Amino acid sequence: MTSKIYIIRNLFSSTLCKTYISFLTSLPLITTPGRPKKDEALRVNDRFQVDDASFAELLWSGTGLKELVCSSASQSENEDDGEKVDWDGEVLGLNPNIRIYRYTKGQFFGQHYDESVQVMHGTPPVKGRTSWTLLIYLSTCSGGETAFYPEPGPASKKGRAQSQPEPVVVGMETGMALLHRHGDECLLHEGREVTGGEKWVIRSDLVVRR
């Protein structure tokens, strides 16, 4: 499972997270519709979205994220086989489509898959596609964990179906980044209901050359 989930602790300092939250509260956040469109997961949160290549570059080059990803030297904490992380191609940077999420008590994001999208990245523009979701947590709260649901393994030689594996649950830490594969390799996942406090998230994606 570690080949699809990657955690970076303390990417942001707690002070920086507070500064971001102070600014983000001033943005015109929009509450998602109560009824999702066809084939969309039910979610209830407040969000803001903007295309900002400069901010995406700041997140990429100004936080140490670029060095961690491109070197592939840091491995997820449970990865003990010495293999480097597969980012699914030559990483170009982050998706300039920046999304801000705020979840308050009772809000959640139902089970869903994240799709890969094609983007033009950089100047001059290079053809790219997104391969991993990036979530940066600016706060902690009660509830609100991200739960991943692995698919059962293949049936045994006797034809017996494998039991459903236990979900992989990732709790939040202030300043922590969570990367997980999306597109064809995406695990079914959800953002569990917040039961207390507020959950603030900056969302982008890794972009690889196509």
From TrEMBL:
Pfam families: 2OG-FeII_Oxy_3. It comes from the Eukaryota. The keyword tRNA processing does not apply. Keywords: Dioxygenase, Iron, Metal-binding, Oxidoreductase. Residues 93-210 form the Fe2OG dioxygenase domain. One of its GO terms (molecular function) is procollagen-proline 4-dioxygenase activity. InterPro entries: Oxoglu/Fe-dep_dioxygenase_dom, P4HA-like, Pro_4_hyd_alph, Pro_4_hyd_alph_FE2OG_OXY. Its cofactor is L-ascorbate. The keyword Nucleotide-binding does not apply. GO terms for cellular component: endoplasmic reticulum. PANTHER family: PROLYL 4-HYDROXYLASE ALPHA SUBUNIT (PTHR10869), PROLYL 4-HYDROXYLASE ALPHA SUBUNIT DOMAIN-CONTAINING PROTEIN (PTHR10869:SF236). This is Fe2OG dioxygenase domain-containing protein. It comes from Trichophyton equinum (strain ATCC MYA-4606 / CBS 127.97).
